[in-house]
Amino acid sequence: MPTKRKHEDENDTSSRYHPNADQAASFGIVLRDHYPPEMSNARCDAYTNGTLEKPIETLERAYTETAQRREEITPNAAVVHWFKTDLRIHDNRALQAAYDLAREAKVPLITLYILSPEDLTAHLISPARVDLILRTLAQLQRDLSELDIPLYIETQSNRSSIPARIVGLCQEWGANNLFANIEYEVDELRREASLVRLGAENGIAFETKHDTCVVPPGSLASQTGKQYAVYTHWFRAWVTFLDRNPDVLDLGEEMGSNPSDARRLFPSLFDCPVPEAPDGKRLDEETASRMREMYPAGEHEGQRRLETFLEAKAKAYDEERNFVAGESTSVLSPYFTSGLLSTRTAVVQARKANGSRIAGGEVGYISWISEVAWRDFYRHVLVHWPFICMNKCFKPAYTNLDWSYNEDHFTAWAAGRTGYPIVDAAMRQLNHIGWMHNRARMIVSSFLSKDLLIDWRRGERYFMEHLVDGDFASNHGGWGFGSSTGVDPQPYFRIFNPLRQSERFDPDGEYIRKWVEELRDVESNAVHAPYERGAASVAQRNGYPQPIVKHDEARDRALKRYKEASGAGK
C-alpha cells in the first residue's frame, strides 16, 4: 500500500532538533524571530521520499482546488502585475501575460511592488543588494511611465499580511486578474498558494508564471523518474530539453504603451515615491557611491554588460574563467539575482553568438552557458529538496558533523586575516565591493568548512549579508559544494589546498597584491605563502598574520570528522 502523503504543518516542531541545534542557533544560524526550531533529519527524509508534501505541490494543489472558481472570473477595471525578483520590462513572462490580457480586455495595466523589511531580514538580503533593488525600482518606474504604465510601491511591515494587502489593492483598483512570476523558496511558494486561495475567495484570479529558470523545475527527470542531483547528468538533460522544446527560449514580444488610459483613471499611482532602505539595510555614503559606480541600476545596464561580455570576453571564457585576477567573467550575477536581466535572455544571446547552438561550436560560449545553467540547477534542487531552505544541507547527516564554533577563527576568516593570502584577498574583495570571483568563493568556503571546520551555515549567512548578488539557491548550492554537504558532495577529495589554488589561479599574485596591501611589496611567488618562502620580515613588518591553522593537519581532521558524521568511520 502506498504511503499516504502528509501536508506540511508549519506549527509542527516535533522531532526537529539535532545534537548541535542549540549551539548553532546561538550563532544566529536559525533566525528564531522568523522560523521554528530546526527540523530533524527524519523530516528531511519525508520530503525526499514524498511522504511530506513539497511547497511546490502545495501551490499546485491550491491551483487544482480553486480551478473552477478561478475560471469563472473575468477581467474588470484593470489587470495587475506584481513585481518581485523580476525588475525588468523585457522578457518577463508574467508581465507579458498581464499586458496581453489588459490589451485584450482594453483595460489599464497596473504594476505593483511590495517592500517587506521583514522579508529582507528573514532572507538575509544584504544592504548592497537592497541598494541595487531600490535604485532599479526608480529606473523601472521611469521606464514604465514612458509607456503610461504606473508602478505602485508600498512598504508592508508585516510580511504575513502581504497576500491580504495585495487582494485589498486589487479590489480597490477593480482588478480581477493578478499576475506574478514564481519564486521557488519555501516561504514564497507557501505565500503564493495562500494568495491563490485568498484571491479565488474574493473573485481575483492569481496566475503565476515560470520565469526565473530557463527550464522550469519538474521538467527534467532520469529514465527512472528521479530528479537529478549531479550537475553533469542534469545539464545533458537540460540541453536536450531545450533542443526539443525551442519555445522555452521564446523571449516574447516588445511591450507597447498601456492598453488603456491609466493616467486618467489611476493618476495617483504615477506619483508613488521609491522608499528608502529600511533600518539595518542602509549603506553609508562612501559605500553607496562605490556601489552606484560599480553596479549601475536597471535592465539597460544588464543588457549592456551582456552584450559587451559576449562580444569581448566570451570566446576566451573557458580558458580564463578560473583566474581570479583581471576581469575575465561577465559579473552579471547581480543583474540575474534581482531580475534586471533574465537568464533566458542571456542563453538566447549566447546561443546566437555561437551560431544558434547550445552544444558544440565555440567552447567559450558553451562553457559560459553551462555556468549560467547552474542557476537553474540549484533552483531545481531547491524545489525537489525544499528542506535546504530550512537550515539543512542536501546531505542532512552532515548537519550532525562536530562543527567548530571558534569565534576567533570565524572573525579572522570574515576579516581576511587568516594568514592564507588567497583566502584573505577574496574576503577583503567581498567586504569592499560586495562581490567575489566564483573560484574564490569555492576556496574560501572550503577553507572555512574544512580547514577551520566551522559550520558552513555561518559562511552561507555571511555571504548573503554582504553579497550584492546574494541569491539563496546559488549561494546555498555554492556552500554545499565548498563544504561537501550539498549535491554530489565528494568530501574525501574536495578539500582545497589554499596554496595550490593560489599558485594555480593567481600565478603572478596580482589578485593578492590588489586586495592584501600588507603583501604588495612581497616579490615573486613568496606572495602566496610569505612565512614559508622567505618574506616573513615584510609580512610581519606590515602586520600580516601568520596562518591560523596548518592545512595538512586541518585536512586530516576534516576527513575524520566527515567520516564520523556519515557513519563511515564507525
Automatic annotation (TrEMBL):
Name of the protein in its database record: DNA photolyase, FAD-binding/Cryptochrome
Source organism per UniProt: Aspergillus keveii
Assigned protein family: Belongs to the DNA photolyase class-1 family.
Any Pfam family hit: DNA_photolyase
Record InterPro entries: Crypto/Photolyase_FAD-like_sf (IPR036134), Crypto/Photolyase_N_sf (IPR036155), Cryptochr/Photolyase_FAD-bd (IPR005101), Cryptochrome/DNA_photolyase_1 (IPR002081), DNA_photolyase_1_CS_C (IPR018394), DNA_photolyase_N (IPR006050), Rossmann-like_a/b/a_fold (IPR014729)
Stretch forming the signal peptide: none
Biased composition (Basic and acidic residues): 1-15
Keywords: Chromophore, FAD, Flavoprotein
Cofactor: FAD
Ranges that cross the membrane: none
Sequence segments annotated as region (Disordered): 1-20
Residue ranges of every copy of the Photolyase/cryptochrome alpha/beta domain listed in the record: 77-214
